[in-house]
Amino acid sequence: MRSIALIDVNNFYVSCERVFNPKLVGRPVVVLSNNDGCAIARSNEAKALGVPMGAPWFKLKDLAKQHGMIGLSSNYALYADMSNRVMSILREYSPDQEVYSIDESFLDLTGFQSRDLIKYGQHMRKRILRWTGLPVCVGIGSTKTLAKLANHCAKKQPVFNSVCNLNNLSSAELDLLFSQIDVSEIWGIGRKLAPKLQALGINSVLDLKRANPEQLRQQFSVVMEKTVRELNGTVCIELEDIAPPKQQIMSSRSFGQPVEDYNSLAESITLYVSTAAVKLRKQQSLAGVVYVYIATSPFKLDEKQYSNGIRIPLPNPTDDTRLLANIALWALKQIYRSNYSYAKAGIVLSELVTRQHLQNDLFARLPSSDALMTVMDGINRKMGKESIKLASEGFIRPWRMKQENKSPSYTTKWGDLPVVYDPKWSLISCISGICIQYFKN
Amino acid sequence: MNNIKRGGIRTGAGRKVGTGKFGESTTVVRIPESQAPIIKDFLAAYQRKKVKADIDAVTEFEWPTLYATSIKLPLYSSKVSAGFPSPAEDHVEKRLDPSEFLINQKDATFFVTIQGYSMIDVGLLPGDKAVVDRSRQPVIGDIVLAVLDGEFTIKTLSRTDGVVRLLPANSTGAYSPIEITEEMNFEIWGVVTGSFRRFK
Fold first, then answer.
1. What distances in angstroms separate CA B149 from CA A246, B21, B178, one per listed residue?
2. Do the domain assignments include residue B132?
3. Phi, psi for B189 (deg, rounded to 5)
4. Do A417 and B112 touch (CB under 8 A)?
5. Which among A23, A410, A439 has CB closest to B167?
6. Which H or E run contains A106?
7. Do A421 and B169 touch (CB under 8 A)?
8. Crossing angle of helices A12-20/A76-91, nearest 10°?
């Protein structure tokens, strides 16, 4: 039997903020999406107040005032650094790691079964808490789906003390446990599929485990069949050590304030192309299609609505920022209409091909821009983001997204390091003569 | 008796050449009286420089890298196809990286900026960056970054007669030790393992 672990950080974004701002401990805290839109992470205190995932911040403001709840803008520089620390610590525990998301990682512990895996998991948990200040839960099972489920149990049931190994439980104990967990908690089921399963009388994890996989395959998909088999301990989804190159790269943002003029839109589109092109070159791909879209706000019902997108196939795939930007701007001109308040714009690079597999055009001799792009990426890596950029990306960017309550980049910018003050009450004047110099003994 | 010289140079007498404060032979020069102090100053500086140069000559120098992480020197990879091989080739070593000196556990190490004067006696001045290692088990006597009722503070950890105290290191007496009591919200965030500062 395999032993696969899923380790994830509890309330990751909020936990990161609390490491550097201990005053947030014990208070309801939410972290907001780009543009301070919706709650994308909630502390346990905020969950207890009934704040749902994705709740818009403007609707939470009353609750915030009433309970002293704090809404923070997302600080991705901080979260990415803390995530890298956690993943790097976990790498020490197994050679087979799949970083599944910013706050989750699978580890294959099959080779470590001679150890007490609960103790091993507790060791990970304590080390990550001590070294980074972040609380994690560890779930262990014989498949990835079971590891995910074990992690859910570790988090929700205090009896496991944050580490749960389903492989240690007897089948009777497992059945009892699974009968108490809602089917929607299973990896890949979620809120959409759960009602359809419930219609078939499948309510709990145990129900799905006992369901007929072939039958479900016909009614749903092969993914559902895999889920059922994985619940029964057959590995269907392997660990992916190296993330496969992305099939498309997207870059889009909502604007901080509505944008009407073409120039601001053009600036933002160029910036998004530039961001996406860096990612493109990093994974050694070339883009074959550029898609550009713009949209007004669907929430402002009293305003005129317009949204449009255009897909431009390229005769020769490229990773040249300048070329991609030119194409995207040409595309923007085709779809731009004046007198609308645009709320969002974005680009998608797709039909990606790997650099090595590029089919050369018999008739086109493309000027090579590899050297220039390499230098550009190199400078930006060494001297910091946007040290060198296209002028059309804009400088002032009045359309930039709103981040009104963002914490400093505590671990990635010199000017943003946490500052250690002398707390006011430690500076007591010694006139009364009761001050003893302890540090002398 | 006629062989005895009277007056004039006596060979072997006087101070030996090069043993003076300049460490080399000297000569007599006439200078304008008004310029004497300037020239004396110049000579004093020249002498200091001379002494310092001698110190440099006997000190081993450690060259820090300019770009801490980005420099990757190719070790033993130089190609010598003809001619006399470089005698230094076998002795190529990596340049020193300051973060290697400062950091033991990179995943558990954080930097903080010092403000205030409470720890100046241990060399932590306002504006200094302190290196905090969370992986270390704090022991009595360590300089620690503690969290006290939600506030960060850097102090020396002490315990006498079962009482835990955070001690300042400032002999002016302007700062008092902080006694940790039950009702305080107290946590040791990490151990301060070093610090660094720039002058320019």
1. 46, 61, 12
2. yes
3. -80, -40
4. yes
5. A439
6. strand A104-108
7. no
8. 100
CB A286 within 8 A of CB A256: no
SS3 state at B145: strand
Please answer whether residues A310 and A335 qualify as being in contact, where contact means their C-beta atoms are separated by less than 8 angstroms. yes
Residue A138's alpha-carbon distances to A156, A161, A189, in angstroms, are 12, 10, 21
Characterize the bridge pairing of strands A163-165 and A136-141: parallel
Token readout for A139 is 């779930």
In a domain, B47, yes or no: no
Kindly report which listed range (A10-24, B72-86, B178-192) carries the lowest average pLDDT score: B72-86
Rounded Cα–Cα distance for residues B166 and B178 (Å): 5
- The residue ranges of DSSP E strands in A245-372, in sequence order, are 249-259, 285-296, 307-318, 342-350, 353-354
- What is the number of domains present in chain B? 1
Residue B48, pLDDT score: 67
* Average pLDDT value for residue range B75-80: 45
Query: Which chain A residue lies closest to B69 (C-alpha atoms)?
Result: A382
Look up residue B45 and give its amino acid. A
Using the structure block, give the residue that is written with the tokens 């002490």.
Answer: B158
Distance from CA of B55 to the nearest CA of A (A): 35
Cα gap A409→A33, rounded to integer Å:
17
User: Is residue B29 included in any domain, yes or no?
Assistant: no
| CB within 8 Å: A421 and B160 | no
Taking CA–CA distances from B115, the nearest residue in chain A reads: A421
Domain that residue B133 falls in: 53-78+88-196
Q: Looking at residue A360, what is its pLDDT?
A: 65
Residue A292: φ, ψ to 5°: -125, 135
Assess if residue B94 is contained within a domain.
yes
Bridge partners (DSSP) of residue A353 are A286
CATH number at B162 reads: 2.10.109.10
User: In b/e form, how buried is each residue of A262-288, taking b as 16+ CB within 10 angstroms?
Assistant: eebbbbbbbbbbbbbbbebbeeebbbb
**Gap from B156 CA to chain A (nearest CA, Å):** 8
Whether ipTM exceeds 0.90: no
Chain-chain contact of A22 with B150 (C-beta, under 8 angstroms): yes
H/E stretch holding B111: strand B109-114
Contact of A2 with A142, CB cutoff 8 Å: yes
CA dist., res. B175 & res. B186, Å (int): 19
Lowest mean pLDDT, pick from B4-8, B37-41, B110-114, B117-121: B4-8
Whether the pTM exceeds 0.80: the reply is no
pLDDT band at B71; cut points 50, 70, 90 = very low
pLDDT tens digits for range A105-146: 999 999 999 999 999 999 999 999 999 999 999 999 999 999
